[in-house]
Amino acid sequence: MKILSLFSGCGGLDQGFLKAGFNIVWANDFDKYAVETYKANFGNNIVLQDINKIDFDELPDFDMLIGGFPCQPFSMMGEEKGFEDTRGTLFFKIAEIIKYKIEKNEKPKVIVLENVRSLKTHDNGKTFKTIKRILEKDLRYKVYSDILNSADYGTPQTRNRTYIVCFDNKNIEFEFPKKQKLNLTLQDLLEKNVDNKYFLSEKIIPTILSNGTGGYNAKSEIDLKIARPLCATMAKMHRACQDNYVTQENRIRRLTPRECARLQGFSDDFVIPVSDTQAYKQFGNAVTVNVSYAVANQIKDSLNKLGEWNND
Ligand SMILES: C[S@@+](CC[C@H](N)C(=O)[O-])C[C@H]1O[C@@H](n2cnc3c(N)ncnc32)[C@H](O)[C@@H]1O
User: Fold this and answer.
1) Helix axes 289-305, 12-19, angle to 10 degrees
2) Collapsing DSSP states into helix, strand and coil, what is residue 12?
3) Could you tell me if the CB of 9 is within 6 A of ligand 1?
4) Are strands 110-116 and 160-167 parallel, antiparallel or unpaired?
5) Dihedral of CA 37/39/42/45: which sign?
6) Burial bucket for residue 128 (CB in 10 Å: 0-12, 13-18, 19+)
7) 166 belongs to the catalytic site
8) Global pTM?
9) Distance (Å) from CA 158 to ligand 1 centroid
10) pLDDT tens per residue across span 257-299
11) Which listed residue (71, 166, 231, 241) is catalytic?
């Protein structure tokens, strides 16, 4: 199955689909460092460009579209205007590409979208309702959605994300992957002999260990067995109520980029060609490979049952 991948980042979502036997024919991101990582691991089929500047005529043939699109607030204007509700947002760009393909009689068979958990509740649920309505009513897909936690798919990280899977064939039955027992802890994924730069200075420790205040009144805890969600701004070192810290050799340290890669399901042969700051951002942004792989396999099963799977 030929996949068009949008907002590909360093390729977490893509990696899962590749592992399951899908074929990524074209990918895109406008972050040059993310594209550098993608190229180092998956090859040159990624285009470094703002999606808003892509000419749809240049897109290759594809059967499926996948993308973890950045979440932007939609202006609802009080009225439900369908397709136009999302104009100017990156979801609109996805919808526009699908619409363009439908008009050319090349409707993609499957669409897979990923976003933060709060997409479902954003703006009192209106944002999600708009997305669903466009996928179902305007683009005529059968839509499934669920919130999946990475910790339920074999990796010790609490990471709840909204997954949306859409099929053109209304006879297809789809189930999100069953939860798996977690056999690993964060401690199992730690590197040995870690560079001194990852250890906290005595000076910064009190700040890092202090509890959250004001709007973020959370308890600081380190050495968690299941990591807190990795986030794109990890390079900044948040307090321990928001970020992950571990004790090693009686000293406290942050996670290394490789440990973040492991928590996101990337194997150790995944090349990290960029600076720590960029690597933290890319792994904090990524879809967990384990979850992507599990979802991809379920999609493959559903397609197979109706003879819609192809090995192209
Ligand atoms: C949440 S991340 C996606 C992560 C990816 N799905 C993965 O699993 O690794 C969103 C990505 O969208 C990219 N992006 C945001 N706006 C974009 C635009 N206008 N054109 C192209 N890429 C864009 C960002 O650079 C970022 O890498």
Assistant:
1) 40
2) helix
3) yes
4) antiparallel
5) positive
6) buried
7) no
8) 0.94
9) 21
10) 999 999 999 999 999 999 999 999 999 999 999 999 999 999 9
11) 71
Half-sphere exposure of 217 (CA within 13 A, CB side): 2
pLDDT per position as a tens digit, 53-69: 999 999 999 999 999 98
In this structure, how many other beta carbons lie within 10 angstroms of the beta carbon of residue 51? 18
CA distance 136 to 282: 31
Task: For residues 107 and 168, give the distance between their C-alpha atoms in angstroms, rounded to a whole number.
Answer: 8
Where does residue 229 rank: exposed (0-12), middle (13-18), buried (19+ CB within 10 A)? buried
Strand stretches in 15-159, DSSP E? 23-29, 46-48, 64-67, 110-116, 142-149
Provide CB contacts within 8 A for 230, sequence distance 6+.
Answer: 157, 159, 244, 260, 263, 264, 280, 283, 284
pLDDT at 200 over 80: yes
State the Cα angle at 94 between 303 and 15, rounded to 5°. Answer: 55
Q: Is 35 a pocket residue for ligand 1 (Cβ < 6 Å)?
A: no
Q: Is 47 in the pocket of ligand 1 (CB under 6 A)?
A: no
Q: Which residues contact 103 (CB under 8 A, 6 or more apart)?
A: none
**Pairwise CA distance, residues 207 & 15, whole Å:** 37
Q: Which atom of ligand 1 is nearest to the CA of 7?
A: 12
The domains of the chain, with CATH numbers, are 2-180+287-305 (3.40.50.150), 186-284 (3.90.120.10)
Ligand 1 pocket test, pick from 10, 285, 290, 293 with the greatest ligand atom count within 8 Å of Cβ, gives 285
Sign of CA pseudo-dihedral 162, 168, 174, 177: negative
* pLDDT of res. 312: 86
CB of 7 closer than 6 A to ligand 1? yes
Whole-number pLDDT of residue 119: 86
Asked whether the predicted pLDDT for residue 78 surpasses 80, the reply is no
